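Hey everyone, long-time lurker, first post.

I ran two proteins through the pipeline my lab uses and got sequence/structure pairs for each. Pasting them in order. The first:
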Amino acid sequence: MKKSLFESVKLKSWIALIVLIPILSSCLKSSDPVPVTPTSYASFYHGSPDTGGLDILLDGTKLNSTAFAYGNYSGYASFEVGANTFRFTPTGSTTSLKETTFNFENGKLYSIFIINNLANIETMMVRDTATALSSSGKAGIRLVHLSPDAPEINIYTTGSNAKLLFGSRQFKTATDFTEIDANVYTFDIKTSDGTKLATVENMSFASGRYYTLVVRGFVTPPSGNTNTITLQQLVNQ
């Protein structure tokens, strides 16, 4: 049986986040047992293409020191197990755009995506799990479709070994992780009828690493908006 990867992943810190693990009292004697604090882990990604910079608040406490802008990714940070209520506001404002409570389980990892257009802004949480890669020279990859006006899409690799990598993916869906050869790829985003929406060149995938490909942006941006549909690579581990 393949072992789970993400239950024991080494986590990257998000400097601006407050780590919500209580500090052990210095009064503990050296012979006292050290209590184990139940801990969960989550990352944030801003994928709302017409929403400006955000502040992220946890139970009223702001977590970021600078604006969390479109396309920003936090990496994983630790949170208390149980109900965590997050509020998302424009940077420097107290006006809430969205408030959501997520229940985190001990030792589990989650990705929280801020999605849709500003008028319909929402959040999507994905539980992050994967199995160990089958051999060296492989990378793990998944797809998250966050383009609010895009139809069902297909992702193809290009070149001499061109193939369909992810097929028939709808807005607000995420795939499981799958294996690819560690290499450099160019991708085409196409509709189900074969219309090419975008080409993204020279994405590198290293052996033993895990990645999320985010389809983001508008097929037809509103006036004054330049966030056209593309792929963004996020490193999970």
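...and the second, right after it:
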Amino acid sequence: MRPRFAVLATVVTTLVAVVVPSVVTAAPTHNRGLTINAIPNPIDAGEGVFIYGHLNVAPVAGETVILYHHLAGSGRGYTKVGLTPTDSHGFYEFTRAENVVMTNRSWFVRQAGISQIHSRTVFERVAALVSLSASTSSAVTGQPVVFTGHVDPSHAGEPVVLQQETPSGEWRDLRTGRLDGASNYSITYRWRFTGDHTVRVLLGSDVRNVRGVANPVTVAVQQKQVPGFTINASDQLIAYGQPVTLSGVLDNATANTPVTLWTRNVYQSQFIPVADTTTGSGGSYTFAPQVPSYNTVYIVRTTLAPHRHSAALFEGVQDLLTLMSGSTSSEIGGHVTFTGTVLPDKAGHVIYLQRLGPDGDWHNEEPAIVTNASTFQFGWAFGKAGTYRFRARITGDRSNVGGASSAVTVQVSPATTTSSLPPAS
């Protein structure tokens, strides 16, 4: 149900013959009478985890099960973190609350007492939370833009990388920064070329966390204005199907001077004229609203000699996404299907299910591929009761800037029966 992060390399050995009640120095490799599962896995840092299973060696009712964990990179062995009784069928459960599981760790359980009844070991992978904000959402070529954010849990002193999405959907490194003592970063970047630039910040994997990436932001970069002939857009970044109005001022122009709007989208090799108007008092002009389907460059030129022209203005067009959930309610272990559409057609493009994290940012959880009908589908199972918010997000390509759907909410309640849970082993 989740994208598969790189698995933390862990050496697993056999459980020692004598088990100390609070500390264990090695982990079991297999189930010996106790099954175990942990959901979700992997998780974002701070997400709640539900751990459960069955005791399969009689007697099964009312027996005490002890949960152990090992924190990756801690240099310590396994420590006891909880105990619970089995029900009449031998079922047990533990809930690790939100803001508790912040780093990679391993879980196993054993039956209390002198018997060597234990589970296998489950390795929980935890992605660090990375936030990102830009000092401005629009800039001109050569203007410094400052990107700031925070990483949780703290990875003070470690590098983070500012990356830009390429037209093929890959991510190219722009600049590296370093987290300060409070796990914050600040990276400055200038663009030499116009366009809508989508960037993210990446924290690489280490022993404590699998890699974390920030929700991308887009900066619209324009060419500097031509002195005496300005061009502006009512909005430099619009959604598919939304209109945009182009206007500006032609200095030293008399009223009723004819001007022409020229455009070129990503699929056109040269500019073509699309609209005409005349200047008003003071040389101001406004064209009727345009509705581009793809990223488009606009230029305004005087229709008659002497010929003058404005700077090239880049207009970004975001993909338009819808998202619907098969149900607005579920329970622990329950499964909800999400479906949606993308406009314009994005068949074959990668799209992500995002969840609103405890840090207030959106995080990629599940990837999918847009179908030939420009639709998509995700599945999700829940490991903790509570309120969950999801949205779909698609990254940009050469034709359009990426976009996100409206959020949908799912209310999750405690499990009413163990049969709804994914099997433990």
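Reply from user beta_strand_b:
Welcome! Quick read of the second one: The mean pLDDT is 89. The two ends are 18 Å apart (CA to CA).
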